[in-house]
């Protein structure tokens, strides 16, 4: 059952498109939204698991995104359990927020002892310098190892994006009609979005995407020959 955030406008697919969709297999539309701005973002401090709120002017900052989402409907909504993401979802899609599934796996990487510090404060730290050059091999003191971060991201992707069988927010298990796009909204963090895009899009690395607070990025997924293939498309609207 779709989660509606407003009036839904969806054209009937042509016979040609339906035939092509059946041939290629299921398709999905995934919208990844980074939370709005916090004080630590403004101050360029490392912000991972520290749970702080959005800036007081978040409603104004997210007004355009809220309007873009107003008439969209979602088949599934997932959100990081941290406050800044929950607040962002409440601002842009309040009806969907009440049905969202909060998931700790969607948290940003944990920067440990570097949380709340800036590049200027850390730039002479040899461990930090090594981490900048080789983040997959060096772990912030008291923080999260890259393999742990990647493992929880892959777990989420395996459960909610790669499988043909899907669990709705109401807990119902269903298999989407190959002719019908499953629309998924994910509100999360910059590092999470970078990692997901590196998995969803061929040839895209972790550092290849710059994600600003309050930005929405949409990916169209199509299953072909047993493999999900992704391409980035414009947002809004959701269209396949």
Automatic annotation (TrEMBL):
Substrate binds at residues 34-41, 84. Pfam families: His_Phos_1. GO terms for molecular function: fructose-2,6-bisphosphate 2-phosphatase activity. GO terms for biological process: negative regulation of glycolytic process; regulation of pentose-phosphate shunt. CDD domains: HP_PGM_like. Residues 1-20 are annotated as: Disordered. The active site is at residues 35, 108. The keyword Cytoplasm does not apply. GO terms for cellular component: cytosol. This is Histidine phosphatase family protein. Keywords: Hydrolase.
